[in-house]
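== Protein entry: sequence and backbone fold ==
=== Local backbone shapes as whole numbers ===
==== Amino acids and backbone structure tokens ====
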Amino acid sequence: MRYRTLGGGLRVSAVGLGAMPLSIENRPDEARALATVHAALDAGVTLLDTADSYHLPGDEPGHNERLVARALASYGGDTADVLVATKGGRGRPADGSWTVNGSPRHLKAAAEASLKRLGVTAIGLYQLHKPDPAVPFEDSVGALRELLDEGKVRLVGLSNTDTDQIRRARAILGDRLVSVQNQYSPAVHDSDPELRLCAELGLAFMPWSPLGGISRSSLDGSSKLAPEGFAAFHEVARERGVSPQRICLAWLLSLSPTVLPIPGSGRPETIRDSAAAADLVLSAQELARLGHWTADA
């Protein structure tokens, strides 16, 4: 496993585990879910991404956080270097929608609840799940700053934000803002400006749903390959004798040294394959075939 730096010199695995599929629709049973987290840890993964809203609609808020905590507690190896990143500011009511609540009162209460579910004295990385259009952005970020000042969270990140919001949060949080988590994949490039800004500022960029265009996300209810328009990833994978998903993650890692993909997984086999991407270095010729660019280009 190769490692990268996440703000303040904190060293984490170059590929993390997005734990969301272990708690939402079509989730595995608990034994397989725990085995998946344990397989990630065995493979050298030290970044686990969760959120209080990763649960079935209207049921068991915080399910994924409790699951991650149980997985760490039951793991036979050393977990001292594992960073658990969680998020607050979204909800999942019974109708299956994703609500947003970025009020300072809600974020502080959500962080307190996450602390208890994770069984820690301070959350390693706490992320604003999504800006709330009904709440001034500075108010939401101010709540994160207060959580930092109180020692309840160690580092702060943003999710689903634009370049203006990143700069405004940076002005409030300084170097305690360490990451941005936006959707990014071969199929979704909307966050090119945010990726480049993160490279400029030295912030970790954590693509969620990073395998889009190569395989469907767990939110699509299927893991079938979707090669149309992305044949080069499948061709390079065949030549290398590895999965297209592994090629995709290696491609993402090549974009910038600040990129930290967090692929979701519901099986031990898939996270082991994803973790192996950290050690796969693509050639210049392969990157050209895949449509390579770099964040400083």
Notes: The chain is about 35% helix and 15% strand. Residues 216-227 have pLDDT under 50 and may be disordered. The radius of gyration is 18 Å.
